[in-house]
Specification:
By secondary structure, the chain is α+β, with helices and mostly antiparallel strands. The chain contains five helices and twelve strands. Helices cover about 15% and strands about 35% of the residues. The radius of gyration is 17 Å and the shape is globular.
Length: about 230
Amino acid sequence: MKRSRINQIMAEADAMISRHGFTLPPFARWSPETFRDRADAAAHVIDSRCGWDITDYGQGDFDGMGLFLFTLRNGLLSDLQGGGGMCYAEKLLISRRDQLSPLHTHVIKAEDIINRGGATLAVQLYGSDDAGNLARDRGGRVLCDGIARDFAAGEVLTFAPGESITLRPGDWHAFWGEGGDVLIGEVSTVNDDETDNIFAEPIGRFSEIEEDEPPVHLLVSDYARWL
């Protein structure tokens, strides 16, 4: 992805988030230079990879397959493995109209996906086989706003603003905005996007970036190189 396109997506996402009454934390406004200057104080933000996250899954077609994310807070795997401390995470996501977030599951993370506003959120679901692999002939059971609901293999469930789905490890899912763009909340156990995204197809979680202009804000995938 070109850095200019990433900067544009950030501005558009920020405007949508504001329209829905959400305010991002102060570090969202930091320039790369401010992040460098405050890296010691911001060690937890950096280590837990909080912040801006924009991906086209390495496919070069953000509008067709992509996702905007902002990780608001996140614990560390060491807390989760130790059974105490900051064992949770929270994100805001934007799924654009007909923009696919491709079929995947998680090994560790359980998550509530909440339609916070906008259009309809569509979620396609599959179950797992006994080894946890994708089973295109199996359904399963999820919680929708805390109420148990069975799903058939490949069934698409839809969620209006205010509605939610709880996904556990082994619940294979893809999602997109139906009828328009959707602001999504995610509340989960500790989030590790580097190792805990298992995709049905061989695609990448993060994008290669072409630096055609300076970044307005750093992405979480920039931290290792910039900081």
